[in-house]
Amino acid sequence: MAASQQTIETLRSLGGDYKYGFVTEIESDFAPKGLDEGTVRFISAKKDEPQWLLDWRLKAFRLWRDEHAQAREPTWAHVTYPRIDYQEIYYYAAPKAGKQPESLNEVDPELLKTYEKLGIPLTERAALAGVAVDAVFDSISVATTFKDRLKDLGIIFCPISEAVREHPELVQKYLGSVVPYSDNFFATLNSAVFSDGSFVYVPPGVRCPMELSTYFRINAKNTGQFERTLIIADKGSYVSYLEGCTAPMRDENQLHAAVVELVALEDAEIRYATVQNWYPGDKDGKGGIYNFVTKRGACRGARSRISWTQVETGSAITWKYPSVILQGDDSVGQFHSVAVTNNWQQADTGTKMIHIGRNTRSTIISKGISAGHGQNTYRGLVRIQPRADGARNYSQCDSLLIGSKCGGHTVPYIEVKNPTARVEHEATTSKISDDQLFYCRQRGLSAEDAVTTIVNGFCREVLQKLPMEFAVEAQKLLGVSLEGSVG
Amino acid sequence: MLKIEDLHVEVDHKEILHGLDLEMPEGEVHAVMGPNGSGKSTLAYALAGRDGYAVTRGRILYRGRDLTAMAPEERAREGVFLAFQYPVEIPGVVNANFLKSAVNAVRRHRGEPELDAIEFLKLARQKLKLLNMDEALLSRPINVGFSGGEKKRNEIFQMWMLDPRLAVLDETDSGLDIDALKIVAEGVNALRGPSRAILLITHYQRLLDYVVPDKVHVLAGGRIIKSGGKELALELEAKGYADVVKAAAA
């Protein structure tokens, strides 16, 4: 895509400070630890929100409080973790521990080495490492260029808090329409205390000319713990959105419970890609991030399409099922995923494809790689509702095991209530064969490069779905995340 | 170039090679022939450094260095190439990308300039043409869906691209029809040179009609029991292994 390449070049030459969204500076005071009604009101007031939104948050909070009091936090996933104390968390602007590095010289050399291995451009490393960017780069110009370009096309791309103020009718119409606040424990929590996130609206017939959020990479380190993203593609429009970053992301906040809602109207298409490398914890598995996310897309209109592509290599625990509700006739849902668990990481991830309209199609390609003591579970649901004539689904779940102490599990649910449906499911479980490893080494590749090569081959189908420059970084990321797994 | 002294190799705690001696100077082509189970593939794997093939005694001197101390990729970068008898499939890994990484790993090691994508493709196309192979092979995943003959020819192609000093061909002729055999033979012959040594491990005399060896060794019972010129291969063809082995034991 010429447009996005040009975008990258411009950004790299400017090396700008790409503040997350276009958030205006917020004072750094913060709510005290813990969660009660006061916290919710505090957050809402801080963001200057209208009454309807505060009411919505409060409804969510009260539901969550009840659920929590009745110990209804879900425990069915194939993951284990110590009980979360919700009163020990900061829900708004946690104070940053320690001071920011003044320059790259003060940054942990191991971190810099990782940036090198991932091929992250030099100009972006400082920002990623948390070096006080203001003093170094000029920020305004780049942000302005983007905003103008999108504005000309009528595309809205701003922080959700800004959207609430500037486009309340859109937010009110769609917020919670795909993931209602009562959906699940963590979505309820998110609805009460979400701090920020992206809002995207693409008007009818408009094709968004650039990969949105490409430039968010730089400031991903400031990503909030309870993000709320809402993307609406109006009739006949197209948008491709990428969240996340291959660079290892640390955060004082352990629990990340984001919610992402996608709405695609007639003939519209939304592509959402995630490359995530949250801190997975130390070698004993302590201190990593819990990534408990609810992501769902609604193909509301006929012939609409939504595709989720994810590369999850980080987090101590990954618990997410990006799903698609195929309401519109002839709508299409796709899920492509690579999930890596090494050391003590755990993942319970997959998708739900709900076929409601006629002649709907869904494709699921899941590649799970386990190494070390990692536990990797694919959990998927394909549900064909009674009126979903002509529904078709194809699922392929492949597990790759490296070493003898890890686990790969597949939990597919298939519920078919329409006799004209066609559902296909294939699953494989394999180890990296000694023959393959030896073949690579005999040609001159080191043992580690051999593993990376074979693993990338295993994941090729999924990696091809990513925007090109991220596909290259994702390949390197797979290598980095499997370091030390073959010994 | 290659000097194997009293080599004992164990696989799964069972000794397969019982004191094998072999010497191969630069510029020559040697053939090692033997009945099934004599240890031919074991020799090939021991030279390439495969895990599970333990050298319990003896040395393998390659250009003065002891190979047994080197990891497989190190041996490869030093110029040891093994054309596998049963080349393995690696799904999703494109031939061209893989080979380019390998070629550059070797070049880096030798202090030679690495090839960029364009240079690599140019070189690859050249070699493919000479080997009468389809360029489409470059964009296919390694060996996936290849016929037996295609796999063997892919091995020869890789050999050309990697430019080894010591090429060990493990039963490269097995499973090939006459035409494929001729192409493979041409490929091997084209690699003959004063600074290269080629070791052909084979069952049958057929390949040796086209790739004429300087010396032939008979491997039986885990060691070389007889060595001779190319006529030895013809003798084996005529008499069979049993007779020759018996005669040597006498």
Describe what this molecule looks like in 3D.
- The complex is a heterodimer of chains A (487) and B (250).
- Helix content of chain A is 28%, strand content 29%.
- By secondary structure, chain A is α/β, with parallel strands linked by helices.
- The radius of gyration of chain A is 22 Å and the shape is globular.
- Helix content of chain B is 38%, strand content 26%.
- Chain B is globular, with a radius of gyration of 18 Å.
- Chain B starts with a strand and ends with a helix.
- In chain B, 42% of the residues are buried.
- The mean pLDDT of chain B is 89.
- Classes of the chains: A alpha/beta (487), B alpha/beta (250).
Q: How far apart are the termini of chain B?
A: 32 Å
Q: Give the number of helices of chain A.
A: 13
Instruction: Summarize model confidence as the mean pLDDT of chain B.
Output: 89
* Topology, number of strands of chain B: 10
Which class of secondary structure composition applies to the elements of chain B?
alpha/beta
Largest sheet of chain A: 11 strands, mixed
Average predicted confidence as pLDDT of chain A: 83
Report how far apart the termini of chain A are: 40 Å
The chain pair forming the largest interface, with residue counts per chain, is: A-B, 23 and 31 residues
Report the principal-axis shape of chain B. globular
Our Rg estimate of chain B from Cα atoms comes to: 18 Å
Strand content of chain A: 25-35%
CA radius of gyration of chain A is 22 Å
How is the topology of this model organized?
The complex is a heterodimer of chains A (about 475) and B (about 250).
Chain A: H1 2-14, H2 37-46, H3 51-69, H4 109-118, H5 122-128, H6 140-153, E1 156-159, H7 160-166, H8 168-174, H9 185-193, E2 198-202, E3 228-233, E4 238-249, E5 255-256, E6 259-264, E7 269-278, E8 290-299, E9 305-312, E10 317-320, E11 323-326, E12 332-341, E13 346-355, E14 361-370, E15 375-384, E16 392-401, E17 407-416, E18 422-431, H10 434-442, H11 447-458, H12 460-463, H13 468-481
Parallel strand pairs in A: 2-3, 3-6, 4-7, 5-8, 6-8, 7-9, 8-10, 8-11, 9-12, 10-13, 11-13, 12-14, 13-15, 14-16, 15-17, 16-18
Antiparallel strand pairs in A: 1-2
Chain B: E1 2-11, E2 14-24, E3 29-33, H1 40-48, E4 53-62, E5 65-66, H2 72-77, E6 80-83, H3 95-110, H4 117-130, H5 148-162, E7 166-170, H6 178-190, E8 197-202, H7 206-210, E9 215-220, E10 223-228, H8 231-239, H9 241-249
Parallel strand pairs in B: 3-8, 3-9, 6-7, 7-8
Antiparallel strand pairs in B: 1-2, 1-4, 4-5, 9-10
